[in-house]
Structure formats: C-alpha cells, structure tokens
Write a structure and sequence with these properties.
The structure holds two protein chains of two kinds.
Chain A lengths: L1 H12 L2 H22 L9 H21 L2 H6 L1 H18 L1 E3 L2 E7 L2 E3 L1 H19 L4 H22 L3 H18 L3 H25 L2 H11 L10 H12 L11 H4 L11 H33 L4 H25 L17 H22 L4
Antiparallel strand pairs in A: 1-2, 2-3
Helix pairs in contact in A: 1-15, 2-3, 2-13, 3-15, 5-6, 5-7, 6-7, 6-8, 6-14, 6-15, 7-8, 8-14, 11-13, 13-14, 14-15
Chain B lengths: L7 H35 L1 H12 E6 L6 E2 L5 E13 L7 H12 L3 H9 L8 E7 L1 H9 L7 E10 L7 H4 L2 E3 L2 H5 L11 E3 L2 H5 L1 H4 L4 E7 L5 E8 L6 E4 L3 H11 L4 E6 L6 E7 L4 H4 L5 H8 L9 H4 L9 H10 L9 E3 L2 E4 L2 E4 L7 E3 L1 H6 L3 H11 L1 H10 L21 H8 L5 H8 L9 H12 L3 E3 L4 E5 L6 E3 L4 E4 L4 H17 L13 E7 L19 E8 L6 E7 L5 H4 L1 H14 L10 H12 L2
Parallel strand pairs in B: 2-10
Antiparallel strand pairs in B: 1-8, 2-3, 3-4, 3-5, 6-7, 8-9, 10-18, 11-12, 11-23, 13-16, 14-15, 17-20, 18-19, 21-22, 22-23
Helix pairs in contact in B: 3-4, 10-23, 14-16, 14-17, 16-19
Classes of the chains: A mainly alpha, B alpha+beta.
C-alpha cells in the first residue's frame, strides 16, 4: 500500500506541462536543424536524425534522473567531480581538436564533451557542499566553494571553452547568491576584485586566444569589417533582422541556407529560427523558455529541503544563463562566446546533459510529493 | 538523516531571493524581446535588404558581337565559343594561395594574374583573368572548383576572323577595354574585361557591333558557389556590318603586294565604295584579339615593317608624278596653260643658281599638256608650278582632297600635307621659298598623300569632278529588329572645273597607258587610264638603282581608273622602295582592274538584293 501510494505520487509528479514545454522546445530545435542542414550532401547521417538520437538518449537520462533520488546522487558528487576533472585533463592531452579548441573525447564514432557534463556535476557539488552543514563566514561560504570551482574552471578555459567557463562562474555566482552572502563578504569580494582587476585583466586578456580577443573587439563595433572579425555577429543580425514579423518560412532563410551564417545548426540556431519564423516565432520560443524556467523556479521554491532547492536553483541558473547569453550574442547584445541554446542547438553532450538536468529538477519535485522518505 | 534542516528564516530568505530571480529573469527576457523587436520589426526592412544583397551576385552576360560581311555577304568576322576564367574577389579567401593554385594547375603567369586581381574594379563583380582557355584547362578548373572559391568558368564568344590575315587592317581586331578607354564617355556602359574594337571597323563601328550586356542575378552561397540564377536579362547582340569590299578583290590585291611593303586601294568612283584596301605587311587579327603577352606585343609594335600600320590610310608618301594630275587641272582651269600651248624641255629647269632636272636627262623637247602627262615631263610642271605659285596649287590640291583626311570609317586616318605659304608659316615658322614651289609641282618636297587620297583623287577625275567620301561600310543590320540600315554614299562636293578639262586629262591618262610611262598597265580586256609616280626617298641618287640600299630606293606609284569611257573602278598602288612607278606599280593596278572587271558582271546591284542574300547566309554562318 505504501509502495502503491509512492508510485501514484511519483506519476503525479511527472508534470505534463513541464514535459510538453521541453518537447516543444526540442521540436523547434530539430526543425531548425533540419532546415539548415537538409541540403547537406555527404555520407554522414543527417544532423537532424543524429539530434533525434541524442534526444532519445537525453530522454533516457531524463527518466533515470527523474526516477532516482537526488540525495543519493549528491553523495557521489565529489567522486564524480574528480572523475570529470580527470576527463578534462585527458581532453587537454588526448582530446579531439575542432576549430582550434580541444573539447572532445572520441568514443568510437561519437565524441563526448566532458565540459558540458562538468556543469551539471558542479551544480551537484555545490548544492551538496552548502547543504551538508551550515556554512558560515565568508571563508566557508565564498572561498572554499570558490576553490572547488577553480580547477574545473581553469581546465575548461585552457581548452579553450570560454562559454562553458562562463557557465561555471554563473552557476557558482547563482548558488552563492541563493545561500546568501553577508554584505561584509560581498564587500570583500568587490574590494578584492577591484584590487586584482589589473592583474586579472592582464592574465585573462593575455591568456585569451586570438579569435576570442577578436570576437570581443568585434562586439564593440561589428559593422566595421563585415568580412572579418565581426562577420559572425553581423551575419547573425542580418539573419534575425531580415526575418521581420513573419519570417521567410521553412527553408526560406537565405542567410543560413546559403551558408552566410556560420554554425547555423549549433551556436547560431536561434538566428536560423528567427530568420525563418520571424518575430512571432521568436515570441513563441521565448515564451516556451520563460514557461520552462518559471516551472523550474516553482520547483525550486517548493523544494522539500535545501539540497533540493539549491540543485533546482543551480539548474535554473545554468538554463537561464545559457538561454540569455546565447540569444544575447545572436542579437548582438553580448560578445560571441560558444554557448549553445539549450534543447535547440545541435549537440549530443549538451542535449543529453540538459535533459538529465531537467530530469533531476523533476526529481526534486517528485521527492517533495513523496510521503515516505 | 541526510539533510540538515535550517531555521525557517533561512528558507524564507531563499523564497525572497527566488522572487528577485524571477523578476530579473522577466526583465532580461523583456530586454531580449525589445532587442528582437528592434531588429526584426523596426530595422527589419534594412536587414532584409542586406540579406538580399548578401546572397545575390550580379553576373554580366556578354553580348554576341555583330558579324562582319563583305559586299556579297561573305563572312569576314564571327564569334566562336571559348572558355574564360573569372574570379570574384569578394569570394576569394586567400588571394596569393589562389594565384599559386592557378599557376600550378594551368601554368598561368603569376604576375599577370596578380596584376589582373589588383586592377581597379568592384570586388563583387567577377573579373576576367584568362580567356581562350582550352577545353582541358576549363575542365581542370571545374573539377577543382570546390577548392577555389570565387573562381568560375564562363563560356563566351571569342572573336574569330575566318579569313585570317585577309583585310586585317580594315576589320581591325578586338581586345579588352583599356583603363584609359574606361574613363571615356563612349564606353560608359562597359566594365573592366569588356571586349571592344581596338582597330579597323571593329573600332570605328564598335558602338554598333558591341551590343548590350545582359545581367544575371545569381544566388550564391558564402563560398561563392552559384546556387541558382534569379533574374536573367538577356544580352542584346550587336549589329552586323556589311562592308563595301569584295573579299575576292581584296585577296588579289593583298597577294599582288606579296612580301613587299605597300598599299593598294580600289574604289568605285561613282559611290566612293572601297572595293579593296590592301596594306602590307599585315597581321593576323585572330592573334591580336587574343590576350597577348607583353613580349608578343612588343614584337608586333617594334616590327620594322610596322604591320599594324594601315599604309593605305595611314601611310603618308610624296605623291611624285601622280601629283601632276591635279596640277594639270589647275593649269587648265587657271588658264596658266591652254591645252595646246607648249613648253620646251631640255632635261633641266634653271631656277636661280640651281638646275632642277627632268627624270629624262635628254629632255622631252616641245611638250603640250597632253604629252607632259603622257611622258611625265617634269620641266613642263616646274614651269606651270612656277607660274601658278604654291598657294594656287594648294587650292586645287585641297579641292581634290589632299591635305585633309578623307573621312573614311577607319581610326587614325592621316591627312597628308598640302603645303602652302600659310601652312609653312604655321608649321615651320618659316617663309616659303620659291624653289620649294618647283619641287612641289612634281609632288616632291613637303607634299605628302595617302594611297587612299590618291585613289579618291583619280576617282574624282574619272567621275568628272564629283568627290565621294570613301565608304567602307554600306549597311548595318540591326540584330533585334532585323532592319537593314543602308549608309548612303556621301558626295563631298564637286571640283569646280569644266567638263572639257576632265576630258583632256582623261585622254592624256589613257595615253599614259597606251603609249606613255605605264605601258605595262595596258590591258587587252579593258581601257585603262592612269598616271605613274616615283616618290623620292633620298634626295641624292648615285649610280644605278641596284646599288642603292633598298630602304633608300624610291617608292613606286600608280593611280588608274577603268574603263576610260565609263569608269567603274579607281585604283591607287603604292609599292615602297620598288623604284619606278611604271615598272613596279602599274602591273599591279592592271591586275586589280582586270580582276574586278572579271568579277563585275556577277556583281549584283549592291543594295537591292542585299538583305535577302545576307539573311540567308547569316543563318548558315552565324555562330
């Protein structure tokens, strides 16, 4: 009887609105990927089919996460973090290079991007850390978790993968704000940041790769050299702007169909969608994302315990960050950093990781409704 | 046990913070929405324009150049397909690498390719790098095109002259428009790489023949590969030309000159139609219409025989004794001499301290005007020249068209010189010397003429003083409407002289051939009237002709018309450094006249059935 009740409650927690939102966003992603790459020749499987496979794997991960218990998962946070750090080290030496960065580990015919999974594991680590004991004082609240974040952050920046690195920082910052930082601690952080800024700038700017620096420079004024550094940003803006209200229709996006827009199926998939479906389509997609994040925040606020709440907050923060920065860079509000649009951009690791994270979120909700814990 | 519970206050704090997060999220999303509204709605049309320009490239479609036919519809110039390589700089990623690729693959000269790529012009428009490529080279490029973004092969028409060197100076040749030409208003529609006529009627009638380029808007991808043509505006073919020449006669004239330098002009005195205009040495317009290397070009330009020079319209020579024809007209018209009054010729003419010799050292005895022409007595003309004075001579010379361009439709025609006191003052800032009049009277000294002017002059005499502008193009066929526009013969004027004067002169010229200095021009077929001339190249002559180096030997002249009774053809022959006109030039003129008379009966009336003949032949020969 107890078991039956649990089962019942568990199914109830499988929020149909939540899943519908996820599926709708995934559908937009597959459609856009199909539209950009349908003309592609070559022996490879078409991108949209591969993406469907990733979504299938992602759905499995989603169900596993949903069915498991986040408390037991949290217990494996540190070992998992150690493993992912080893993988990141491995990537540096043995990883597959693509577009000047070493981010991938080859797994037979597939490649695997540890930095994507590192994000989720980092959320687990931080949530576990803060909920384990009442962390008091700025040393325990800020410095120690900061030191936890640092090795992963440095390894990812070294690849280089500015986008994932920034996501790391964003997750850390969001968690920090959620557990609360006393104003004195915040003051110290600000002070140190300002004092260290010249050194940090030197270190950061100096360690950036040429293309990263160029992208940041291009962000300042993308119009000055359409064929050069600002190329991505300008082509993306042209794609989005030329969509106007109703868009150019499926396959009608000349910017992406004619390959003026690079990375149309990955980082710039939003521009493809905006070009083909116009402002109305964009409003629909934004609404779907807002809805998904809203429901996620709902879960966070109603979490049974602090671990659940922090996990939920971390996942929402990551989702928000990726959505806002990705769209922000395609519309020319942010510099171009390689961040995929969650659930929309083509990519195995990111899709599976995002779906797993969403499953974990739903797990937080399920445990809240579960009577017996 | 796993969870540590915190005081309620701590959790309440979380709720407060989550609320802030929600507000922040909505704010950020609103900001993104605003930005998207700005991009897609407010600036949407602007970006739409940008995207349209992004994907289309304008490709010009070169028109087919008009064809050229002779007076009977024989094809003289047409177009054949050829492959050209174009590069659109906008789509080229690495210029140097491409230059290397092209020179490795096809053996192009890297410096030449680089020069073409750096030449002024739009980056968005394809520019021609190489034309007349072989099929093999074109295929090589096509098969490697994916590695060479921005490169494309176009099939184009290439100018072709089936007759090779025949009538090369008349037809001219075509070539890529030069930077200087691009600046000129008449080439305003053209662009770098356009083919324009550079010589001959190809140049003077370029406007008619070049046609109008069409446009193709091609949708390309970011790599410059053509996806599909969006809009096609068909090119408009250029108009066809019908020349007045008879290519058979042209060939005969050219063969007669053979390897010697010189010119032969034959025209119809009744209309000014140029029947043949040969100039030797010649050139092959097929070679010149191709892209020449700098070395090839230097070779042609520095050739001692100056093959690009059309000696018929651009060569200026002293007319020698052929000048006696207008002098004789002047003497009669000014009543300086009556037809029967005589001059005694003892072989020399004393003027001041100097003796002007007659070509016949023993002299001609008493000569009247008729005999002076028939035997080309110099002393007679020294005498009348001295009596008339240079300015009267110049007046008559100018009436006959000397000293000014005939206006033939060929570029860079020269005008020759008809000297006068005013001319010398202007050109040399010197006074006219009386002795110079004596030289001028026999066509030496300052007087120079072109063979074309002399043919026109003898034609004018044959025509009893009516002067026609020499005409090379008789009709233009409009390609789009199919209309044949005839260009009428243009009378330039009439020499104000009595018909009796022309009768006397023509009589004398007929006797020149029958019993005078040009008996070698005597024909059993047709009566010919003519006048020999020998233009001195070097003033001092020592010893017999054979001892003089060839380039110092005299030029041989012969001007003629036939038949004497009702002239149908006027001919001028100039053979450089061939000595006496009667020996070297007269037989050539006879050959030309006889050939024409043999052809003449088959000649259909020039314009009446032209259109029907040409149209049927056009379809067969057009390409």
């Amino acid at each position: 009887m107890i078991d039956r009740l649990t089962e019942h409650r568990g199914l109830d927690s499988f929020d149909i609105r939540y899943v519908a939102l996820i599926l709708a966003i995934l559908g937009i992603g597959v459609l856009s990927i199909y539209s950009v790459t349908h003309g592609q020749k070559g022996g490879m499987a078409p991108y949209y089919l591969k993406q469907l496979v990733w979504i299938g794997l992602g759905a499995a991960a989603f169900l596993v996460m949903w069915a498991s218990d986040y408390h037991s998962l949290a217990r494996f946070a540190y070992p998992a973090y150690a493993v992912i750090l080893l993988m990141l080290v491995f990537v540096l030496f043995e990883g597959r290079t693509s577009k000047g960065a070493q981010r991938w580990i080859a797994l037979g015919p597939f490649t695997f991007q540890p930095s994507e999974f590192a994000k989720l594991i980092l959320i687990l680590v931080l949530a576990h850390y803060y909920s384990k004991a009442p962390r008091v004082g700025w040393l325990q609240r800020v410095i120690v978790p900061g030191l936890l974040v640092l090795p992963g952050l440095l390894l990812i920046l070294k690849q280089p993968d500015l986008g994932s690195g920034l996501s790391f920082v964003a997750v850390y910052a969001a968690m920090l704000l959620m557990v609360g930082v006393r104003s004195k601690a915040l003051g110290f952080i600000l002070l140190f940041s300002i004092m260290l800024f010249p050194f940090a700038w030197e270190g950061v700017w100096g360690s950036l790769h040429d293309y990263q620096r160029q992208r940041i420079m291009a962000f300042v004024d993308p119009g000055y050299d359409p064929g050069g550094k600002g190329y991505h940003a300008l082509q993306s803006k042209i794609a989005i702007g030329s969509g106007e209200l109703l868009g150019k229709g499926l396959y009608g996006g000349t910017q992406s169909q004619l390959k003026f827009l690079p990375e149309g199926h990955t980082d710039f998939v939003f521009a493809v969608f905006a070009e083909e479906w116009g402002f109305l389509g964009v409003l629909v997609l934004l609404t779907l994302f807002v809805g998904l994040i809203w429901l996620s925040l709902e879960i966070a606020s109603k979490a049974k315990d602090q671990l659940g709440a922090l996990l939920a907050v971390g996942i929402v923060a990551m989702l928000c960050f990726c959505v806002v920065v990705n769209i922000g860079m395609t519309v020319g509000m942010f510099p171009i950093v390689g961040i995929p649009l969650p659930l929309v951009s083509y990519g195995g690791s990111a899709t599976i990781m995002t779906m797993a994270a969403l499953g974990l979120l739903l797990n937080v909700k399920r445990k809240r409704l579960s009577l017996f814990y | 046990m796993a969870t540590v519970h915190y005081p309620e206050a701590e959790f309440g704090d979380l709720h407060r913070r989550l609320f802030i997060l929600r507000v922040g999220l909505l704010l950020v999303v609103a900001l993104l929405g605003l930005r998207l509204w700005h991009l897609q709605i407010r600036e949407g049309p602007y970006y739409r324009d940008l995207s349209e320009n992004n994907r289309t490239r304008l490709v010009l479609l070169e028109p087919a150049r008009g064809l050229i036919y002779d007076r009977h519809g024989v094809l003289l110039a047409n177009n054949v397909p050829s492959f050209s390589l174009y590069v659109t700089l906008e789509d080229v990623k690495d210029r140097e690498a491409l230059i290397q690729q092209l020179s490795n693959l096809l053996g192009f000269d890297p410096t030449l390719v680089r020069k073409k790529m750096t030449a002024r012009g739009s980056k968005l428009l394809p520019r021609k790098i190489k034309d007349r490529m072989t099929l093999r080279d074109a295929m090589l490029v096509e098969s490697n095109r994916l590695d060479m973004p921005g490169v494309m092969i176009q099939v184009e028409s290439q100018r072709n002259y089936p007759g090779g060197m025949t009538a090369a100076h008349l037809l001219g040749y075509v070539g890529e428009i030069s930077a200087d030409q691009l600046e000129k208003p008449e080439f305003v529609d053209l662009h770098q790489g356009s083919i324009v006529g550079q010589y001959g009627v190809e140049k003077s009638y370029d406007r008619h023949m070049r046609g109008m380029a069409g446009q193709k808007n091609v949708e390309v991808d970011a790599l410059g590969h053509e996806k599909k043509a969006v809009v096609v505006e068909r090119p408009q073919a250029g108009n066809d030309l019908y020349l007045t020449i008879d290519v058979r006669l042209q060939k005969v004239a050219e063969d007669l000159l053979g390897g010697e330098y010189g010119a032969i002009v034959a025209l119809d005195p009744n209309s000014g139609d140029i029947l043949a205009m040969a100039s030797r040495p010649g050139f092959n317009p097929n070679v010149l219409s191709r892209e020449l290397t700098a070395k090839q070009w230097v070779e042609i330009v520095q050739d001692e025989g100056r093959p690009l020079n059309n000696r018929a319209s651009q060569g200026q020579y002293p007319p020698g004794s052929t000048f006696k024809i207008p002098m004789a007209v002047a003497a009669l018209e000014t009543k300086t001499m009556s037809p029967s009054s005589t001059v005694f010729c003892n072989g020399g003419y004393q003027f001041g301290k100097r003796v002007y010799h007659d070509w016949k050292a023993s002299g001609h005895g008493y000569v009247d005007l008729h005999n002076a022409l028939v035997h080309s007595c110099d002393v007679y003309f020294y005498t009348i020249g001295q009596r008339m004075g240079i300015d009267v001579m110049a007046e008559f010379g100018k009436d006959f068209g000397l000293g000014k361009a005939t206006g033939v439709e060929l570029p860079s025609e020269r005008s020759g010189i008809m000297p006068s006191t005013a001319w010398k003052q202007k050109a040399k800032h010197e006074q006219w010397l009386p002795g110079e009049t004596i030289s001028a009277a026999i066509g030496q000294g300052y007087v120079t003429v072109t063979p074309l002017q002399m043919a026109s002059l003898v034609g004018t005499v044959a025509n009893n003083g009516v002067i026609y502008r020499p005409r090379l193009v008789q009709a233009v066929m409009d390609r789009t409407s199919g209309n044949l526009q005839e260009l009428p013969a243009v009378p330039r004027g009439k020499i104000n002289a009595k018909p009796e004067t022309f009768r006397i002169i023509k009589d004398a010229l007929a006797d020149v051939v029958t019993k005078g200095t040009a008996t070698r021009a005597k024909s059993s077929m047709v009566t010919i009237g003519g006048k020999t001339g020998t233009a001195q190249v070097a003033a001092l002559r020592t010893g017999p002709e054979e001892n003089i180096p060839k380039k110092l030997r005299d030029h041989a002249w012969f001007v003629a018309f036939a038949p004497v009774e009702s002239p149908k053809i006027a001919v001028a022959v100039l053979a450089e450094h061939m000595g006496h006109g009667g020996a070297a030039a007269a037989p050539l003129a006879k050959e030309v006249i006889e050939t024409y008379m043999k052809l003449a009966p088959q000649v259909p009336a020039v314009t009446s059935d032209l259109s029907s003949v040409k149209r049927s032949e056009r379809s067969a020969k057009d390409s």
